[in-house]
Each structure stands twice: as structure tokens, then as C-alpha cells.
Amino acid sequence: MRHIRAALIAAILATPATARADPSDWDAVLSVARGQTVYWNAWGGSTTTNAFIEWVGERVAEDHGVTLEHVKLADTADAVSRVIAEKTAGRDEGGAVDLIWINGANFAAMKEGGLLFGPFAEDLPNWALVDVEGKPVTTDFSVPTEGYESPWAAAQVVFMRDTADLPEPLADMDALLDWAMANPGRFTYPQPPDFLGATFLKQALYGLTDDREAPLGPVEDADYDAVTEPLWTFLEALTPVLWREGRAYPQSGPAQLRLIADDEIDLAISFSPGEASAAIANFELPDTVRTFVPDGGTIGNASFVAIPYNANAKEGAMVVADFLLSPEAQARALDPEVLGYGTVLDMDALTPEDRAAFEGIDLGVATLSPDALGPALPEPHPSWMERLTEDWIALYGVAQ
Amino acid sequence: MLGPVAAGLLGALGPAFGWLPAIGADEPGFAVFRDLLAWPGFMDAARLSVVTGLASTFLSLGLVMLVLASLHGTRAFEAVRRLLSPLLAVPHAAAAFGIAFLIAPSGWIARAFSPWATGWERPPDLLIVQDAGGLALIAGLVAKEAPFLLLMSLAALGQIRPEREVLAARSLGYGREAAWLKAVLPRLYAQIRLPVYVVLAYSMSVVDVAMILGPNTPSTLSVQVVRWMGDPDLALRLRAAAGALVQAGLVIGALGLWRLGEIAVRRFGLRLIARGGRGRSLRVLRPVALGAGLLSGAAVILGVAGLAIWSVAALWSFPELLPDAMTWRNWARHGPGLAEPALRTLGIAAAATMIALVLTIGCLEAEHRRGLRLTSRGAWVLYMPLLIPQVAFLPGLQTLMVAGGLTGGLGAVIAAHVVFVLPYVFLSLGDPFRAWDSRLATSAAALGARPDRVLWAVRMPMLLAPGLTAAAVGFAVSVGQYLPTLLAGGGRVATLTTEAVALAAGGDRRAIGVYGLAQTAAALLPFLAALLVPRLVWADRRGLRDGA
């Protein structure tokens, strides 16, 4: 009985595939959002992120009467599967997913499949503070975001090294290879198709190839073999001196941290400049770990949130997306005691008080200053990641 | 029981043959299977599933039979038996994590001997966990499946009453082990055949344990199917569906192979029995049995102990045997979030177990009153959800449930759990229930009791111990469900297990320690109750105290 009534109410209230309130009329959005429950589907593997999301939930409940529920995923694709299952079943409204922490290939797939609500991101009030020029927020893996997802954290590749075993930073990929040859078994990377593992392949490609422009366009348009040839030569030499001789790989970024903590490896890649400091604070890494970036820069990208086309609480989801862009939330996320995620805001657009809040944060022992971090290289087109991953799997992923 | 499985398999059939309009696949054909076969790791992944499944089932069964033959009825056996409930209660993922920490080159065992005995200042670069042959995976599965088979065997033994046969055989000069193997084992195996099949199907298609302990270059087929299902490239969902069907086919094939093995062993065994060897020298097996049983149990228990220490560890680096310092910070961080999923887990498990118990007792009693026997076909239908890999039918089932508007709530999750809990409860309770001496019913009826009164006043009280054991098994099964909870609940119903597996993806041992312990506790409580309640209620009825 209750099911039927709920279904009737939902049918009367919902207008298919659009929000009840227009994103450009923010007051209307706020008033519809009040009382809504937003199910935020986000990867639940990081306890610090989970705690941050919980805090966001408390704050949006306080300010806007929006209830936030964190649906902890083992894999972002579970949420994508869910939306596909709903679309297959014809459930075009009242979907179970309101907000997804998303980027890269998942975003490209959902955008292409018409599974996203929007555009909304550029109508959010706090969008005015976003550093559109300096941060990779308008393209996601070279796919234009076009307002279908809203950024909330900036990230950039760094390498973590245990200074007890590897005192000096490695200048480039050749130095990395030399060091690995001299210290067999002390380096590995997450197994592609893991996102961070694929990132290592792309970072190595940038560091080795002569043609840094080619990866920005679709892989079909480039001379793939010529561009990637140095990468495969590099991997051929590197794999036998990897941890476990490349016969096994850690399955995720955090699993790599564990290997450093267990002193099984001395060098690992990370997509978050503040991760090492945060992990040291939580005893997950020894305090001898420091980060560095090789010469020539590292890949940077942003984390986004998107709203599925059939989300039940689109207004509430937009309110959460906007709160994530507020100076308060961004400063908190930057604090290594909390998350250590980079901000997407433009410091010059902030009020002096807000800017002071950012400047007051101690970035932690292992975190590089923005200057030392250097410029972010753009993410290659997603087709490169697919192709590199596919070829890597054929060469190393299934060969015992 | 057939409904959800068939529906789910049908749901996988479409995509496997290239039909999934939601992602623009609308050209049915065999292209997807060709794509699957062309995937370079296919043969290795399939072989791994079959080999690890068969090997771990064979070893689990062998271990249980060895322990029973050499130790049943001895005092050492009581030690093994006391280990049983905690071993069953430890969730698979937590046990796998614990074992991984135990045996890794930087793990507890290596630390215990480093650097003083091994000279290792740094962990050696040895491929132990995630080895290409799947040995670590097999070891982890045996450590978890052997207790389950032992529990099922004990339940069956309570009805077979092997003491007379063993006594008779021993008075004819047979050694303890030979008496057991020749007089009891054949009858026992007939009773536990389905549980053995369940173990085989489970071991072949397990996902969480295989992710933690199994190889990854490539991984087992079921792990690969789950990976494809989760790949951002939506076209891979088609390959996942085809892989899921192949996985189901592999399980069916392996079951057939096992059946052939049974026939061969039977032939050979009969000849061996007819020859009449007294097998006194089998006594040498006794220390082996005790050693192997304790080793397998100790692996799980030390693993959980390791998790417990991780949950209070500050920095803990190699080769320290214990952390630098203990801290409550991990519990302070994760504890507050624990209460709500814990309560939900217990509620769902209690509801699903209750429903399963009512259905089981109703079904068994109807069988008894109408003089029916569950036909072997009927039994297969009941156990279908356990014999068909979850990865094969759950995604299809999810799509259908969404289409039917049956999602998102606790109700849907409980319903999905019942599908998996019911067979285990039936499996645990069915044999003791049927083997109950029905002359007691005749006596009661002769004294004027109606069938309902016979059931509630005579039969169920006498079956209190096996009934509670069945409930505890059902409870533990419900607590451990991951995929069904995730899919039926639309991801919104967070239980200890969904939280723990999500955390396991991150690999933070401290958080895994906290959640693994909570999960273990949730599953352990009913086992304790199943052990204690009959002892209290039947303090003066020795024969009614042991359900398992």
C-alpha cells in the first residue's frame, strides 16, 4: 500500500529528466532542495574521504536542510551500473543515485550515453570562485565538461619515496629505471586497468615520448606505435626488476601505501600531493616518506560530481555540489589532517578572510609547495588510457 | 528458488548474446563470446577457477574426513570442535585478509623470525600471496570451507550414530581410522554430498577471497567478470555477461567431473572394503590429522588476531612483531559509524533467518505429514542459488528487480538474503529433522497429541540444538552477503559487510581490522547462543545437547 502511494506521489511530483527547479534560479533550487535526501555515491575505500563526506552532510543539513547519505562504493562503476540498470528498466525518474563522485572514463561514458542531468555546474553560485583558467576544470580527460559535472578537488601526480631507502628524488623516467635496476623488487605500480596504474603509464609516456601533443587528441588520429614505442621499451626493461618481478601487482593506490609501510617497496605513484602527509598522520606511512615530481611536470586533473538524468533529488544534489565549491569546504579539504586535496578555487577571487584561511593551513611534512609541484600536464584523451591499458593487459596483465 | 536464479540468468543471456539496448547494443549474435575467447587471459582465468575450486574442495573434504576418521570421539576432537563456531563465524573477506597478513613476506610469520633467524632487514621479494598457481587462494578457501563441511558432517553424524558401527568394526580388529573410513564414511558422504557440491561451486566462483589471495595476472574468471562489470567501458558489460555464463557452465562441468570422481572412488572403495584390510598402521595419520586441523584453524584465528591488533595499531612496520604503540584512534575514527550498519546487519540477518526457518520447518513438516520425500530434483532446485555463481545471475536479477519496482528498501535486501539463507538453513536442518526417530511421533499420537502438538511439543524441542545451529548458520550467511545486499539494496542499505568490502578496496588494514572484528562478532553471537542455549535448556538431557 505504502509503495503504491509513494509511487503515485512520485509520479505527480516528478517531471521527467529535468529538475523541478531551474539551476539558474538558485533561490528556487534552495527551496525545493530543503527536506530532500541526497544519495551521494562515492568510492568508500578511503576513510579520510568518508569522514569528509560525513562532515559535508552535517553542514548542508545545517545550512540548507538537505540530508546527505554517503553510498560507499567499492568501485564508481557500481553507480554507473545502477543508472544503466534503471535506464534499461525504464525508470526515468526517482532513480536511486543522486550524485556521483566521478571523473574520466566514467564521465565520458555517462555523458555519451545521455545518462547525466545538466548542464548545471556553471549556474552554481560558487562557480564564480573557480579557477577556470589555471585548473583543469572545464575538461575531464580532454572531454569538455560543458556543465554536466562540477569540480570539487584538484589533483596532481606526485611520486612518494621512502627517504630511508631512496634519499634523492629521481629526475626522470630514465633515472627511475636506473634506480629500479640497481634495486630490484623495490618499485611497483597499481595494476592497470586500475586508474592510478593507468596514470603511471600515461605519466611514463609523457616522460619518455618526444611527441607530447599527440596524446591530447583521439588515439586514432596519432601514430600510436611511434608515440608509445619508448614506453614499451621502458616497460620491457622495468618489469623484470619490479616488485615480485611483475608477476603480481598491488590492486589499488592504498594497497601500494601498505607496501611502503611494510617496507616491501620504496617508491610509489600518487594522484594526490597531500596523500603522503595525511597517511603519515594516520600511521599508514612511515614518517620518512617524502614526495617529489620528476622534471618536465606531472599529470593533473580534477575530481568532479555529476547528477544522473533520473536522480530523485536533483536540487539537493546541486546544493551539495555548490557547497563543495565553497571556500569553507575547499579549505577543509586542503587541510592534510582532513584530506589533503588540492583546491579548484582561484585565490584571487576570494575575500581576504577566506584567503587567509587557505594560507593558514600547514600542508604537512611530505607535501610539496605549489611552486615545487610545478605546472600540471593535461590528461591525455580517454582513448589513450583505454588503448594503453588494453595493450598493457595483453603484454603483462595476463602473462603469468 | 528457481525463479530468481532463472530470471537472473535470463537477464545475463541477453547481453551475452549482444543485446543490451540501454548501451546501444542491439545486434544479437555470437560476437560477444568470440570477444571473450579472444581475450588473451581467458584460458588461464578459466583454468584457475576450475583448478582452485576442485583443489580446495578436495583438500577441505580430505581434511574433514582425516580429522573425523582419526580423531572423532577422542579428547583432541573436542579441541577441534570448540574451534568450529568461531571459524565459521569469521567472514570470508576478513579471514582472507588475516591470512594474507600472516603469510606475506612482510607478514606476521616472517616478522616472528626476522631479522634474528632469517637475517631479513627488509621483507624478501617472494611471490607468496597472489601466486600464479593460486596456492594462497586454495589455502584460504580450505581454511574457511573445511569448518563448514565439518559442521555439516557433525550434523549428519548426530543422525547416523556411527558409534555402533565403529564399535563393531573395531571389535573385528579394524583400527580406528579404518573402521571409520570403511563403515561410516560411505554413509556420511551420502548425507553431505550437497554441501560438498555447494563448497565446490562456491570455491570456483568466489570473488572477495580471490581478489585478496588469488593471482591477478590474470585473476580467476569470476573476479574478471566482476571487473568487467565495473569497467567504465560499458561495452565490457556484454563480455562480463558472456563470462558469467561461461562461469556458470564451468561450475556445472566441474560438478559433473566431481560426480565422476565419486563413482570412481566408490568402485575403488568397495574393492578396498571387500579386501578387509584392518588398516592398523593408519594410526600414523593421527598426528597428521590433528596437526592439519589445528594449522587450518590457527591460520584463521591468528589472522583475525592480526586484524584485531591492526585495529589498535599506531605505526607498525617490518620487522616489528607488534606495533610501536597501541592507540584507540582507529576505533574512535570508525566506531561511531559502526553502530548503524551493525544494527541493520543484525536486523536483516534476524529477519532473513526467521523467514528461512519458518519456510524450512513448514516444508519439512509437510514432507513428514504427507509422507513425501523431497525429490532429488526438488533438492537441486532449492540449492540452485548456491550452485550457480552469484556473479552469473545477480546482475540480471538486479535489472529485473528494478523493472518490477522492487528495490532500494530493506524488504528487497531481506528477500534477496532469504534466497541464499534458505538453502543453508534447509541444508543444516533437513537431515537432523528427517532422521528424527518418528516412532516418538507415533507414541505421542497414540497418547492423543495432534500433529501440531507433536511438532511443537516433541519434535522441535528435541531438535532445539540442530535448529539453533541451522539458525546460526543462516545468520552468518546473511551477515556475509555482499553482492546481493549491494544490488538489491540499490547501494543504499549499508551493512557491516558492504562497508567492510568497500574499505577492503582501499586496503587500510586498521579500518579493515575494525570492520572485520565487528563483522565477526555479529556472526559469532548466534553460534554462541546455539552452543549455550541447548546446554542450559537441556542441562539434564545429555542426548539433546549437541546440535553439531
Low-confidence spans of chain B: pLDDT under 50, at least 5 residues?
none
Kindly name the structural category of chain B.
Answer: mainly alpha
The domain tally of chain B reads: 2
Taking the sheet with the most strands of chain B, its summary is: 2 strands, antiparallel
Shape of chain B: globular
Q: Could you tell me the strand content of chain A as a percent range?
A: 5-15%
CATH superfamily of the largest domain in chain B: MetI-like
Predict the CATH topology of the largest domain in chain B.
MetI-like fold
Task: Report on the architecture of this protein.
The complex is a heterodimer of chains A (400) and B (548). Helices cover 40% and strands 14% of the residues of chain A. Chain A has 400 residues and is α/β, with parallel strands linked by helices. Chain A has two domains: 2-153 and 302-369, D-Maltodextrin-Binding Protein, domain 2 (3-Layer(aba) Sandwich); 158-300 and 375-397, Periplasmic binding protein-like II (D-Maltodextrin-Binding Protein, domain 2, 3-Layer(aba) Sandwich). Chain A is globular. Chain A starts with a helix and ends with a helix. Mean pLDDT of chain A is 88; it is low at 1-17. With 548 residues, chain B is mainly alpha-helical. Helix content of chain B is 74%, strand content 1%. The longest helix of chain B is centred in the middle third of the chain and has 40 residues, at 236-275. Chain B folds into two domains: 33-220 and 265-327, MetI-like (MetI-like fold), CATH 1.10.3720.10; 330-548, MetI-like fold (Orthogonal Bundle), CATH 1.10.3720. The mean pLDDT of chain B is 85. In chain B, strands 1-2 form a two-stranded antiparallel ribbon. At the A-B interface, strand 1, helix 3, strand 2, helix 4 and helix 5 of A face helix 17, helix 23 and helix 24 of B.
Quick structural overview:
The complex is a heterodimer of chains A (400) and B (548). Chain A is of the alpha/beta class and 400 residues long.
